[in-house]
Design a protein that fits this description.
Layout: E1 3-6, E2 13-14, H1 16-29, H2 48-51, H3 58-74, E3 81-82, H4 86-95, E4 99-107, H5 108-117, E5 124-130, H6 139-150, E6 158-162, H7 165-172, E7 177-181, H8 188-194, E8 198-200, H9 203-211
Parallel strand pairs: 1-4, 1-6, 4-5, 6-7, 7-8
Antiparallel strand pairs: 2-3
Helix pairs in contact: 1-3, 4-9, 6-7, 7-8
Length: 213
C-alpha cells in the first residue's frame, strides 16, 4: 500500500464549531429555529445536500447550501482546530514512503485553504475535494476523482482513512480498504459496522497502523 487517502473533517481537523455555526445560521435564516447547536454535529461529514434533506426539499436545499457556504467562506473555515499529533503523523507517513492524498467531501477550495492555514499543505501529493457545483459530491465521487487525478486503478495501492461510515462505504465501492479513526466524530462501532478493517484512537496510532501495511 503506497497511497493514503485522508478525510479532512474529523480526521485531520475538528471543524465542528465552524460547521455547526454555519448550518445553524443557514437554518435560522430559512426559519428553522435551532435550540442546541450540538444536535447539528451529526451532519458533520456527509454532503450538505444530504444533511439539509432533513429540513428542506428541492430549491430550498440549494438555497440552504448557498447560505452555509457564504458564511463558511467568510469566517467559518477559520473556526477550526487541527488535532494534536497530525503534523507528526503526516511527517511520519511521508518519511515512511507513503503518498498522502486529501480526499474530502468539503469543497476543494476550502480544503486547500484550511491545509495552507495550518501549514500542512506540503505533506499532500494532492488535495481533492467536492466541487461547488456538486458534480463531485459524495465520498465515492471524491475518491473516484482522486484516483483519476493520480492515475490509480489498483485498490490495493490505497487505504482510505476517515472518521465516519460514509468514508468507509465510499472506499468499499472501489474495493479500497478503510481504516477508521475514533478521535473524530464517529464511533468504533459505527466504523467497524460500516466495514473498516480496524480503528485507530489517535493520529500516532493511525500512522503506525498505516506504516505497518
Amino acid at each position: 500500500m503506497k497511497y493514503v487517502f485522508l478525510d479532512l473533517d474529523g480526521t485531520i481537523s475538528d471543524s465542528s464549531e465552524g460547521i455547526t455555526n454555519c448550518i445553524a445560521e443557514a437554518l435560522e435564516t430559512m426559519g428553522v429555529r435551532v435550540e442546541d447547536k450540538n444536535t447539528l454535529k451529526k451532519y458533520i461529514g456527509p454532503p450538505l445536500s444530504v444533511s439539509f434533506r432533513d429540513y428542506f426539499e428541492g430549491e430550498d436545499i440549494e438555497r440552504a447550501i448557498g447560505l452555509y457556504r457564504a458564511r463558511y467562506r467568510e469566517s467559518g473555515w477559520k473556526e477550526n482546530r487541527m488535532y494534536p499529533g497530525i503534523p507528526e503523523a503526516l511527517a511520519a507517513l511521508r518519511k515512511g514512503g507513503k503518498q498522502i492524498v486529501m480526499a474530502t467531501s468539503k469543497p476543494e477550495e476550502f480544503a486547500r485553504r484550511i491545509a495552507e492555514y495550518f501549514g500542512i499543505a506540503s505533506y499532500f501529493t494532492a488535495i481533492c475535494g467536492a466541487s461547488l457545483d456538486q458534480r463531485i459530491n459524495t465520498k465515492a465521487e471524491v475518491i473516484a476523482y482522486a484516483m483519476k487525478t493520480l492515475g490509480l486503478s489498483d485498490p490495493k495501492e490505497i487505504v482510505m482513512v476517515g472518521d465516519r461510515y460514509h468514508d468507509v462505504e465510499g472506499a468499499a465501492e472501489f474495493g479500497i480498504a478503510a481504516l477508521g479513526v475514533t478521535y473524530g466524530f464517529g464511533t468504533a462501532e459505527e466504523l467497524l459496522q460500516a466495514g473498516a478493517f480496524a480503528v485507530a484512537d489517535s493520529p500516532e496510532e493511525m500512522s503506525r497502523s498505516l506504516l505497518a501495511m
